[in-house]
Amino acid sequence: MNTNNNVYTIVYTTVVVVIAAAILAIAAMALKPRQQANIKAETISQMLTAAGFSSKEDLAKLGNDQILAMYSDNIKTAFLIDAEGNKTDELETEVSSIELQDNLKVENKNIASGNPSLPVYVFEKDGAEINVIPCYGAGLWGPIWGYIAFDADCDQILGAYFDHESETPGLGAKIKDEAWFREQFKGKKVDFEHPDNPFAIVKGGAPAGDASKVDAITGATMTCNGLDAALDNWFRAYIPFLQKKAGAAMEDDCCGEDGCEDCDHDHDHGHDHNHQHNHQEG
Amino acid sequence: MNEDLKKTLLNPIFKGNPITVLVLGICSSLAVTVQLKGAFVMALSVIIVTGLSSFIVSLLRNSIPNRVRIIVQLVVVAMMVILVDQVLRAYAYSIDKQLSVYIGLIITNCIVMGRIEAFALGNKPIPSLLDGLANGAGYGMILIIVAFFRELLGSGTLFGLRVLPASYVPNNLVILPPMALIILGCIVWVQRSIQKDLQEK
Amino acid sequence: MAKNFFDKIRPTFSEGGKLSWLHSSFDAFETFFFVPNRTTRKGGTHVKDCVDLKRLLIIVVIALVPALLFGIWNLGFQHSKVFGLGWGFWQMVWYGFVKIIPLYLVSYIVGLGIEFASAQMKGHEVSEGYLVSGFIIPLIVPVDVPWWMLAIAVAFAVIIGKEVFGGTGMNIWNPALLARAFLFFSYPSKMSGDSVWVGGLSKALAGGTPWKGGEVVDALSGATPLSHASLDGLSAAGTSVWNLFLGDIPGAVGETSVIAILIGALILVCTGVASWKIMCSSVLGALFVGWLGNVGGVTDIPCWEQLLLGGFAFGTVFMATDPVTSAQTECGKWIYGFLIGALCITVRLFNPGYPEGMMLAILLMNTFAPLIDHYVVSANVNRRLKRAKTV
Predict the structure, then answer these.
(1) Residue burial C15-39, b: 16+ Cβ < 10 Å; e: rest
(2) Domain span at residue B140?
(3) Considering only A228-242, B155-169, C284-298, C371-385, which range has the smallest mean pLDDT?
(4) Where is average pLDDT lowest: A194-203, A244-253, C56-65, C381-390?
(5) Pairwise CA distance, residues A177 & A138, whole Å
(6) Nearest CA-CA distance, residue B88 and chain A, Å
(7) pLDDT 10s digits, A84-112
(8) A69 in B contact zone (CB under 8 Å)
(9) For residue A120, which phi and psi values (nearest 5 degrees)?
(10) Are residues C240 and C296 in the same domain?
């Protein structure tokens, strides 16, 4: 057969390409569930580490199924909120159909344009609620992101986890590698009074006693600045929600079944109380 | 094993090593050798891709139309690389994240196409398979040597296990690509001092 | 008397003698003391000039001495200031002296050791190119650099920077800067930042306790003027233009005193050892970009003050002018120098990642120097060809 005539060439290439495409399609379909489970497990590990359920190293030793199961067992509810802090959608938390909002890059743009769809993951640990929210931004060489865990009334930070794509090893990469950096966040708060700078990572050391500042990493100024900007951006977007949560939690605490006669509502925090209780100032 | 096959297998390891002698495939050897684990996975991937691509192309060698020869080779290589990438993403996700684009870049690795053109098109399938595997192995060997030094000096660990005492101050420069090229240069230096007939006059 | 000594032992080191394999080392020491008496082949005219490579390099070393002396005093001065010790003049000089001598020992022992060994292995003479590089290296690194780090950096600079390319005169990059760059990229936390430029400060800060009875004064963190990057910052730190010029500020040992460097520049230019063209064009380039920065509102430090900050002055006078690594053609020197000055200030102003740009600027231009020369020469050739055609 003359291998160089036109018809043969066209038929041959078509056949080769079709066969290659078919093989790849079959392989991709067969492997897809595992791949998606991998991606989900990675995101969930980061969240679980921030919330304090385990450490990233320990989670890495478990298999995907165990991590997904851990998520399902410990999650109370997960939903999306809009820019005003109102719930817009629920996310599935059943182990076989876990939904996550992990397209943080897109949401980062949406925050800027004013109509984001932000995820909130509410876990339950030893009876107490833990709210986990993500953050995302630009580091020095590539994107950086992380998860911050708040307590039940979204007042104090319980833990954090940060990751990066291509920061300098030994410097910017320390936001992920060094535990002390993450530990600093425990017990800190978001500064609602100053929405233009709700959190700060301070070069040279945060002033002791300031609940909304942590120390930056020496030599990783640019990465820490990027993380600072990311935290500011995302905290600001979540402030309506966090404040609502804080307000609601306060109500739950003191507004029992008898109404609020015994309550001593403190209106000095500047929180927006969006509730319909009629109560007498006690 | 007959002499020819033995030569095919052993040549690419030393005398005809694709990286140090043919100077092919340098870029990926700089990027993925920061850690031994990554280098190992990359080496395995290249061995599989080169071997199997050579094998398949050799099977097809008499039927490929001449005008579309390179394109057909490219389709075969691309298919193998994508398969490897998908498998890694499914079964070794964390390593795949570390190696990210470099697995995909195996398609552009000159060793693969180079061996197909130079060997597989003119030889029987089994020798082509062996030639591909051996070249991949030669490449892999260099990768592992470079990664050994880079991980040892840059983090004090090997395969993630701490080897040097904690008081060792890690050297940041060896983690960056320029130092990898210098280490590669030193390997070429050592090889040419030992095998003097490789030195050009 | 010394000559007799050398004459007596020379046979042992010549061909056939017992220690002839060490003849390179013997050669090196002999020519260090005496002008070599080998002449060019018979016939033709000979020029007898006692200024050979060794003499040239010794002049450069002499030009470096003012900067070294001032730096020694400054080390003690800064240390005394930051720790509130209130030392006298000689105490400061002694402190600086004691701190810098080990660095010189490491630099020369390791550097010359490698040079001697390579020369022996190749059977060549030892060339004295390392004399100047070895002198410069301790002047541009932080004074507290651990000695083993310095040793590795020197080994890197000499082996990979010089020997691999063929030894003295064949290197593309300035070896002193290679050592500095190696340290900078290998151990960045120890090489930059605010605490490394004052002796003993990083150890004290790390320890967190007062050191030897003195206490770290809060306001002076040991930050160099470059880290302040604005006029307000500079005045807040109490640094005036006169401070910058005289050099009693934190910084690398050789780099701070512009006066001392200018004395060195004078020596080099008057003896014809270094090219004034490179120095001038470097200053022009820096002024130009500094002015652009002022006009563009990037910085409020006036462009002439940029010349006094950081390592610019030292680099321009001693390292950009290195005859081996700089451009060789006269026209090329103008271009080369201008780009060095411009690049240095560009990195300082427009790159937030690096506060100092001189090292990077010089190394980059070292790479391009042959290209600059090539284009200058071919432009010249083309011009002459055109002229020849029209005649």
Answers:
(1) eeeeeeeebbbbbbebbeeeeeeee
(2) 17-148
(3) B155-169
(4) A244-253
(5) 18
(6) 9
(7) 878 888 887 777 777 787 788 888 888 88
(8) no
(9) -135, 130
(10) no
C245 and C323, same domain (yes or no): no
Query: What is the domain extent for residue C115?
Result: 69-200+236-256
Asked whether the beta carbons of residue C188 and residue A219 sit closer than 8 angstroms, the reply is yes
C205, C380 Cβ separation under 8 angstroms: no
The number of distinct structural domains making up chain C is: 2
Average pLDDT of the residues in C240-246: 76
Q: Hey, what are A28's tokens?
A: 């991709």
Q: Are residues C269 and C249 in the same domain?
A: no
Q: Are residues C248 and C327 in the same domain?
A: no
What pLDDT score does C372 carry? 93
pLDDT in tens, A197-216: 888 888 767 777 778 888 88
- Please state whether beta strands A143-150 and A128-138 pair in parallel, antiparallel, or not at all (unpaired): antiparallel
pLDDT in tens, chain B (201 residues): 577 777 778 877 877 788 888 888 787 788 888 888 888 989 999 999 999 999 999 998 888 888 888 989 999 999 999 999 999 888 888 888 777 778 888 888 888 888 888 888 888 899 899 989 999 999 999 999 999 999 888 888 888 788 888 778 888 888 888 888 999 999 988 888 888 777 776
Q: How do the residues of chain A divide into helix, strand and coil, expressed in percent and rounded to 5?
A: 40, 20, 40
ipTM passes above 0.95: no
Say yes or no for a CB contact (<8 Å) between A34 and B87: no
Is C41 contained in some domain? no
Say whether both C243 and C296 belong to one domain.
no
Identify whether B102 is part of a domain: yes
Residue C212 belongs to some domain of the structure: no
Which one of B169, B176, B181 makes the best mutation probe of the C interface by having the most chain C beta carbons within 10 Å? B169
Contact A51, A123 (CB under 8 A): yes
Is C187–B174 a contact, with Cβ atoms under 8 angstroms apart? no
C-chain CB neighbours of A222 within 8 Å are 352-353
Q: What is the DSSP string of C251-282?
A: S-TTTS-HHHHHHHHHHHHHTT-S-HHHHHHH
Q: Which of A4, A27, A170 sits opposite B170 (nearest CB)?
A: A170
C53 vs A236, more confident: A236
Domain ranges of chain A: 74-254
pTM: 0.75
Which residues 112-171 of C are in CB contact (within 8 Å) with B?
149, 160, 164
Q: Do the Cβ atoms of A119 and A99 come closer than 8 Å?
A: no
Of C191, C225, C256, the last residue of a domain is: C256
Q: List, in order, residues 6 or more apart from A125 with CB less than 8 Å away.
A: A51, A52, A53, A74
Is B79 close to A17, i.e. CB distance below 8 A?
A: no
Tokens of C58: 């010794």
| Residue B178 falls inside a structural domain | no
Per-residue pLDDT, averaged over A11-18, amounts to 91
Confirm whether C99 is domain-assigned: yes
Predicted confidence at residue A276, as pLDDT, reads 42
If one counts the domains in chain B, the total is: 1
CB-based contact C189 A218, cutoff 8 Å: yes
Chain A and chain C share a number of CB contacts under 8 A equal to 14
Say whether residue A227 is in contact with chain C using an 8 A CB cutoff.
no
Strand-strand pairing, A213-215 and A200-202: parallel
Chain C contact set for B174 (CB, 8 A): 186
* Same domain flag for C187 and C240: yes
The answer on C248 and C125 residing in a single domain is: yes
Q: How many helices (H) and strands (E) does chain B have?
A: 9, 2
C188 in contact with chain B, both atoms CB, cutoff 8 A: yes
CB contact under 8 A, A171 and C189: yes
